Amino acid sequence: MPHQLDLGDFRARRSVLDPADFALGSDAPEAAPTGLISEKVWREIMTLPDDVLIRTTGHDGRWIELLYRLRSNWLGCMPKQGILFEAMLDVLEDLDAALFSLMHGYYRQSITACRDALELMTFACMCDLYGEAHRWTDWQAGKENFSFRDNCVRIARHETMRSLETIAQHTYGSEVSLLPADYEADAAQNAWITNLHGRLCEYAHPRGTNGKLWSSNGPVYSTEGMAVCCDAYLECFSALMLLARIAGEGLKIPDDAGFLYDPQTIEQYMPAEFHALCTYYGNTLLYAK
Question: Is the pTM of this model over 0.85?
């Protein structure tokens, strides 16, 4: 049977904000609840995810703190205005959702949020590089949809990206690239960002992924689910940083995110064929000595 956490554990009590804590709105005292949920329904909804939350933060707290630190770095390097600012603000919500879902055991939903962030940042990068602010505003207004693959190809064909990829290919002599310059399946598979997107989709599509990771109905804590989501978050974040830097030439990248592009770190979260590529771009595009 479920039991209450010891009150000495700081996670045992919930907190609510006071009216004065909000930037907007009245400071008047908040009214008493007018439509309180029943305790039965509350417990049926909250018991399992609460259990995962306590187990995750009890055993994997350092991983949660690491992902949260990256999320905070993202907030700290955002420009003050423009397409890139708006996109990075939206991506911040995806990063928050990915972390929150992970902590509560919704592993597929966490990976879906990472995929959404990658798709959005790719579109913003393409619009910024080509000066197509109208496409961004049309998309925001619901007047246009975008194709992730098309956006990747257009970025790859831009003179800025072509120059970067030419130097990268000459430097480490690999067949892989950051983005695909054409629509061929092999090109997409050998380009890190489209390859990453494909792997995220394998988890994000509703094919029973959570059930496989839980080996049960759930949510329940899963060491495999935790590992998959942490790797997805780290790899996606490293790609997001590169896309943001490609679009925002003067973008300040926080120094304490540099560990993501260290060869020993990369080995932990990324397929081997992209290690050299990611290290190269991290060292030359983000953290040039």
Answer: yes
